[in-house]
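Here's what a typical entry looks like (Competence protein):
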Amino acid sequence: MSVLQHLHRNSQRISQWLFPEHCRSCGVVGAALCSACASDWPRLPDEVCSYCALPLQTNGDCSVCSVEAPPYDHVYTHFVYAEPLSTAILTWKFHQHLDWTRALAQTWAESWGDQAPSRPECLLPVPLHARRLRERGYNQSLLLARYWGKRWHIPVRPAVLRRRRNTRHQTGLSAAARRENLDAAFNLRGKLPAHVAIVDDVMTTGTTAAQLAELLRQGGVQRIDIWVLARALREMVPTHA
Ligand SMILES: [Zn+2]
Ligand SMILES: [Zn+2]
């Protein structure tokens, strides 16, 4: 170990001792998100649509997916985009609380037990437009993909999906207007494997996921999973995502 690495490691230990990590939700010392707060995250029921993960009375497909199956295969998440998780995600995403990344990504990962939810050959984070990326300084989907990729040894390929133009904020737009807004918003780069997972923080109407999946299908991908922290329910579309 070099002298610099040694100094770096020791300064990290000292700062952890001086400023111990505390839960950003309740303040208890120990971790950025304590297990009690993580267990408060609203969970989806066992019966969800086999495609888009919306809650159902029984197993099967929802009324939308049974009429026309979406271009992706399956949405993987256990969580509903509702309080207190929704505030946590918004704070993380819009207020530079990057120390939450690990807590959010880890809690999601642990909800699957030891195994990854599926075994894609690579993870594709939903891209931000260059201007949005400059404003925010980071792409939250890439942060999640990096954590999950490292945990389960799956390559992350952030350059495959690209945003063509700066789409308007989706907030307040109808599903049809969202589709139009995203039309021709993405393109593909590079060779693709047969099985991929698109990574995003929240799935709202599913328009972005469907559009990216459509593009990947055209590019020859056979199986497309969607990995998201949380699923917004139709009647409670969030304000920012
Ligand atoms: Zn807590
Ligand atoms: Zn569905």
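The CA atoms of residues 52 and 219 lie 22 Å apart.

More examples are in the samples folder.
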